[in-house]
Each structure stands twice: as C-alpha cells, then as structure tokens.
Structure to design on (200 residues):
C-alpha cells in the first residue's frame, strides 16, 4: 500500500470548472493541481509524479487525447479520465483506445466523478478511506500468518468454520471482519486477535 498521498492532475481551460475540481479533490488524503493550459500542464508533468490525470477533451493548443498520449509516453502507469461537454461515440472510443481509464460527460455529478477517481486509485493501491486502509492491513496480516502456518485459504476456512469466499475477501481487504470472525481466524492461526491489529 503506497504511503504517499495520491496526486491528481487536472487540466481544463474552463477556469470555473478547473478550480472547482481542484477544490473537490484536494483533501487530507489527496493533492490536486489544476492547470488551465495544456502545455504548462505537460511541462509540470515532466517534473512531478501524478497518479491520476483528469483532462478536458476540448482545449486550445492541445486537446485532452493528445495530452494523454504525450503524458503516457513519459509515465505508463498514470490513469486518465477524459471529460467532455461534446460527447460522441468516436471521441469515447478514441479516448479509450489511447489508454483513458474512463470517459465522463459534462455536466457531471461530482459524486459520480469521485467514485471513478476513487476506483482508479484503489486499483493502483491507494485506499482513501480509513476503513479501507484498516481492512487492507488486517487482510494482509491474516494472509501473512496463514502463509507462515502453511495453510491454504480452503484449509483455514474449513478450520474456522467460515466460507472460502469470506477468507479471500478478508485477505484482499474487500470486507470488514466482525470481532467474532477475527476471533475464529486468530484461534485457527494460533495467534491473538491483537496480533492482527498490531501497529494500526
């Protein structure tokens, strides 16, 4: 799990929208930087590390897809989201073919856009909520202890009287475990529940 806070690059020649997105995505867990000019954004991109790029499609000097291509040449890992007020099947397909993670129509609902960004960051290993971070940490601890004891997921599930699916979900941080479930798992691993939450 990355320890650094994710950095989001926003490029939109609409000042009102650009500032709005920067405010929305700048939080205690995230840093967002907005550029009005695509060329300036590209220059800054060469200096810093960004994890997500939110790019407007229609911009002067360089459109969002061209900017995506130039940035992708320097960083293959960054995830891009294209915004457009002029949606079409052609631009959507072009954006996705060039490596955009998603294509979002304007006007958008900020909550929906945040879900897309959160999903993208989570796929890159960032967990923006405290609950998700805790689930991921506990899941990794369960997996580490299970591997040390040379148990498969199936064997641990059988010993604990739990489903294999639940154990897998816990280890992958996809589910919150009840105290009762953690107690069963800990007992089968010959450890204490406190060992699973140590250093949290």
């Amino acid at each position: 799990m990355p320890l650094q806070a994710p950095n989001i690059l926003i490029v939109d020649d609409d000042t009102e929208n650009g500032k709005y997105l920067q405010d929305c995505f700048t939080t205690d867990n995230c840093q967002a930087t907005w550029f009005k000019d695509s060329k300036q954004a590209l220059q800054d991109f060469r200096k810093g590390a960004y994890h997500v790029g939110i790019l407007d499609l229609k911009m002067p000097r360089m459109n969002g897809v061209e900017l995506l291509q130039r940035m992708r040449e320097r960083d293959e890992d960054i995830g891009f989201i294209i915004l457009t007020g002029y949606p079409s099947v052609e631009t959507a397909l072009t954006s996705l073919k060039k490596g955009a993670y998603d294509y979002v129509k304007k006007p958008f609902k900020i909550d929906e856009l945040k879900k897309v960004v959160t999903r993208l960051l989570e796929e890159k290993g960032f967990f923006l909520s405290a609950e998700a971070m805790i689930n991921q940490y506990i899941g990794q601890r369960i997996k580490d202890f299970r591997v040390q004891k040379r148990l498969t997921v199936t064997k641990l599930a059988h010993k604990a009287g739990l489903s294999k699916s639940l154990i897998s979900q816990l280890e992958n941080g996809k589910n919150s475990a009840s105290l009762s479930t953690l107690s069963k798992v800990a007992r089968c691993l010959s450890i204490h529940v406190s060992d699973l939450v140590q250093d949290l």
In short: The chain has two domains: 7-123, 130-196. The mean pLDDT is 88. The CA atoms of residues 81 and 168 lie 30 Å apart.
